[in-house]
Amino acid sequence: GRGGIDDVVWSPNQETIAIINMMGAWLYQAADLTAPPRLLMNSLGDVRKAQFSPDGTRLAFVSGIYDGYGRYDIHLWSTETAARINTIHVEGGVWPDFAFSLDGFLIATGDTNAVRVWNAQSGAKITDIEGLGYVLDVAYSPNGRLLAAIDDDGVLRLWDARTYEQINTPETIGRVNTYYRELLFSPDSRYLALNYLEGVLLLAVPARTHRLISTNIGEGYMAFSPDSRMLALAPDSRYHTYDAAVDDQITIWDAATGEMLTSLPGQGPITFAGNKLTFLVDRALLTWDEEHHLRRVPIPEPVESYWIRPDGREIALIDTTNISAGAFGLRFWALTDGRLMGEIVLPALGGGYGVDLTFDGRKLAIANRNVVQIADLNSEIDFPQVTDLRPDGIAGNSVLFSPDGNFLVCSSVADGMRVGGWNIWTWNEWGGIRKAYVGNANTNAFTAATSFAFSPDGQVLATGEGTGIIRQWDVNEVMRLGNVGLDQGTELRKWQAHDEAVSLFYTPDGHTLVSFGGNQERSLKFWNAQTGDEIHLLEADTQAITSAAISPDGEILAIGKYEENYTIELWNMNSGRQLLTIPEGYGYKLLFNPESSILAAASGFGFALYAVDSGAALATERAYFGALGGLDIDFSSDGTYLVSTAADGSTRLWGVPATSD
To answer: Which of 9, 385, 509, 576 is 20 to 30 Å from 249 at the Cα level?
Structure first.
């Protein structure tokens, strides 16, 4: 699907609306919210700040992960062509920041020990301003004359934006050994506000004098009035619950004198529309003006988070109606009279469990807890037609099409009296769908199937269970019976293969079934697919086997292992000789492309593509939603793209590079 909603940003001309989430930026036409959006894709972790260039032709956002060591990307896109202009990598420290120049020609980014300035049209670097600590925030003045930065030493620096000569000294502001948060210029560029843990520092730029406003707003909000006379400060509603018994929490200050003009009950987010301040009080939206008039905006919904259009005419609110079904929406209301002006619905597709493509690439199946979704990829990729299949129980993390695409199987887990088993669907040429369920009531959940494998001809389904048992089923007989108990003896054969949960797959010729057990087992077992007899045992050393796969041409066996790190071994199936080892690879799930030339490997920290002949990494995608990587992956039938699901509810398509790239 299109994920949730983390931020909403309007272009300066207000013709484009960017909805920001972990997937990236979805660009909608403000004049036609029903028109298909364009996606500027994120490839790394959470997305924080997003901003249009002043002319609206470019959009930048920051994404990244922090798992003890920060890895971040600043993405720069053309909004006219939806083409990526540049990706700027920043490592270490905290989240970096960026700022566009007044003419939109330049973008300044914070980095370790430097501010870097780039051409925002070509992505080429213009200059590095070095000698700083880790840069926490950067800002261009609205008049385009100044560039400001604050680093983790608490030193504020100002430069001439054209010559990059520093126009102040660090001693002018002074070092404060605390964590600085945010820089904000007033609209007329005369004042610069700096939020940090001890309060807000208000700098008069021409005079180079400053005042400390001793109001701690934490990771809160600052807003100048359009005429630059007032500065409003508010705590962040995400970390501060409003309580009428507590002192007023929003304060408004005279920017010239540093004197407090008034205080208001409520909390952020805050924004000025004209000289009216909009803010939250107990999930209601209020406005305040200089005559001290308070007015409630008549929106018939509780307000959690909101975004106001730059001209102050509309407000965007998250629609929570369908969140339980996995769908997110955004509604736009008139600030004057509370009329509903329009809405955007982000379809629910995906859920971060299992994923599989039919061999012809026309259908995509996604296991999504209460539903298995079939997306018809013959329709537009961003808006595939989706069919929901309801399983018995809750959809597990294994979903698989038969080779001819006529059957789909999915594991299921606890749901009331039905505990463990699997569902299988088939559909005819007229679109009719039939389902069968295999499982037992009142049994241990470990009897649930944890792995599936169809024989190459699609007539036999092998299932691996949590207890280490392998069963083989006649698919057509299961469909005929419709509801099958595991203890009825209707399977073709079963045997105890391992002590723990078992994963399995067929060799391409269909003669052999390969299996491996849970995290404690260190062996691969090869079984005669027609009799269930063991024919070969491949034992590992001290490392537990986490995954395995055979190339479609039957020549290469890949084995994923884990002890302190993931490693991948490639073996020649004919000679039994080990070909190479990929150290510190992603190895939780392995998958070959149809040509047997590329190996995809996924783990909890992302996935990578490796050249089979050399083990060289062709591409690496770090986890794009925090510390958890893709939960399942699959190649398209022509090998040109890879599909992945993720725990953030997204399903993504990735281009696959050629082995020579």
So the answer is: 9
